[in-house]
Amino acid sequence: MLLNSLDFAIFLPIVFILYWFVVNKNLKNQNSLLLVASYVFYGWWDWRFLFLIFFSTVVDFLVGKRMKDENNETRRKFLLGVSLAINLGLLGFFKYYNFFIDNFIKAFSFFGSEIHPNTLNVILPVGISFYTFQTLSYSIDIYRRKLEPASDFISFSTFVSFFPQLVAGPIERATHLLPQFYKKREFNYHLAVDGMRQILWGLFKKIVIADGCAQYANLIFNNSSDYSGSTLLLGAIFFTFQIYGDFSGYSDIAIGTSRLFGFDLMRNFNYPYFSRDIAEFWRRWHISLSTWFRDYLYIPLGGSKGGIWMKVRNTFIIFIVSGFWHGANWTFIVWGLLNAIYFLPLLLTNNNRNNLGPIAEGRYLPGFKEFISIMVTFGLTVIAWIFFRARDLHHAFDYIAGIFSQSLFQVPVFSNRLGAAQVITFIIIFLGFEWIGRDQQFAIANLGLKWKRPVRYTMYYTLIIIIMYNSLGNSNQEFIYFQF
User: 332 pLDDT band (50/70/90 cuts)?
Assistant: First the structure.
């Protein structure tokens, strides 16, 4: 079920009414309703994958309970290993089986040997990378004695499958989200209204920005050999805003929907395209995944405490693993490697934590140096996204070579330039909203709260009309990160 679909527009109010007006007196009934709703939501794509998420839930629930009663360190490590092996094994099979088989065949072919192992038509379960990492954090935190295991299977199952963030995050920690299922929840009008505003902004990002950009990004990337360097650059910029509007839009809808039910999810994006260096970009982009790798991979590997070699090694490991997490394609691995290379000079000069404060704090506009830093960082990010979007490495390198050709300074030419100009206009308006609200949880969190009600509601209804108008030309496009 897509969060930008008519199905979800019907599903959400039904669950909301049942949750607050039918089962609101009993916490266990509320959790049970959310569990049923989450399984209906997830099973909407393919009901067979419900067995997979249920199996993962049972394994980690039992492992957690057993670890609590086990004091022998060797046995505790074994139990953690069971959780890691099963969860990562399922993820590896469904997501990476054919990738490894295909590369195995190519490696032998390179040396003149022909082998013919079987490949499978493996369907990737929606959101498996997200809920796998969520359950892994639960098992690891219990092993580290940072978390008491769940005693209520319903609460734990709802934590694993919580429908707003199930298929594309944020990747929640059990230490943050799980305790919220134990506490009585009462309807909070102001929290719900704030959630509705965030859902509205998320829909604007997805339907107006991401889906609008997708039309032209797809056209240009799929026919890249036909276009000039300037058009290819424009296509890369379109994809840069497509993936941001798509993914951060989903996060906004997920967080806003959770607030309707009295839950608080972690922030996943913090205006990353206003970053002044790559280190800051990664503190602002997909925060739940970046901090997951920091806490469960980078720090256990030694973090930044060792010498220069250890810092460099660990940095490359987390960026390459992050790339591989995104998909079974060398393009994602090179995307991660490229970001590691971007990050390396900052790390080696100890400048990776220079920009921790707000951007242009207390000022309407950034200073000249700040503006140049933002533009350079944005440009590096655009180049990296080309690898993320390209079909394969050959396509990515050809695309970049096409940009840096003599045709870079030609006027971009492609079909429906008027429609593209409209999308660019919306991007500029969008960036204006984001810049004004850059110190808020989301761009329109506080915008207009002090205006007179007619003026404020005019803004909301204008956004709704723009969203509805743009949705007519886009048939509920899936979120990009559903495939991860």
Answer: very high
Domain encompassing residue 368: 190-276+355-483
Specify the DSSP class assigned to residue 146. Answer: S
Q: Which residues are within 8 A (CB) of 37 and not within 5 positions of it... i.e. 6 or more apart? A: 11, 15, 163
Task: Round to whole Å and give the CA distance between 154 and 29.
Answer: 10
pLDDT in tens, 99-131: 666 655 655 555 555 655 555 566 777 888 899
CB < 8 Å & 24+ apart, contacts of 418-426: 419/215, 419/216, 420/216, 420/234, 422/212, 423/209, 423/212, 423/213, 423/215, 423/216, 423/238, 426/208, 426/209, 426/212, 426/466
So which residues are the catalytic ones? Answer: 326
Cα-based distances in Å from 320 to 236, 315, 326, 377: 22, 9, 10, 20
For residue 292 the two structure tokens come to 């997951």
pTM above 0.90, yes or no: yes
Q: Return the SS3 of 306.
A: coil
The CA distance from 210 to 203, in Å, is 10
Query: Is 28 a member of any domain?
Result: yes
Distance CA 316, CA 421 (A): 39
Query: Three-state SS for 109?
Result: helix
The pLDDT tens digits of the residues spanning 251-309 come to: 999 999 999 999 999 999 999 999 999 999 999 999 999 999 999 999 998 877 778 88
Query: Count of CB atoms within 10 A of residue 272's CB?
Result: 19
Domain count, the chain: 2
Q: Is residue 328 part of a domain?
A: no
Residues 345/312, Cβ–Cβ less than 8 Å: no
In a domain, 254, yes or no: yes
**Looking only at Cα atoms, what is the longest distance across the chain?**
75
Closest to 288 in 3D by CA, of 198, 196, 168, 389 = 168
**Does residue 417 lie in a domain region?**
yes
Per-residue DSSP letter, 180: G
Nearest to 334 by CA among 272, 269, 405, 383: 383
Same domain, yes or no, for 99 and 149?
yes
| Residue 130 shares a structural domain with residue 264 | no
Whether residue 125 has a cis bond before it, omega within 30° of 0: no
User: What are the Cα distances from residue 250, in Å, to 131, 151, 267, 323, 357?
Assistant: 16, 31, 12, 20, 26
- Identify the burial level of 2 via C-beta atoms within 10 angstroms of its C-beta, where 0-12 means exposed, 13-18 middle and 19 or more buried: middle
Distances (CA, A) of 41 to 37, 38, 55, 71, 470: 6, 5, 17, 39, 25
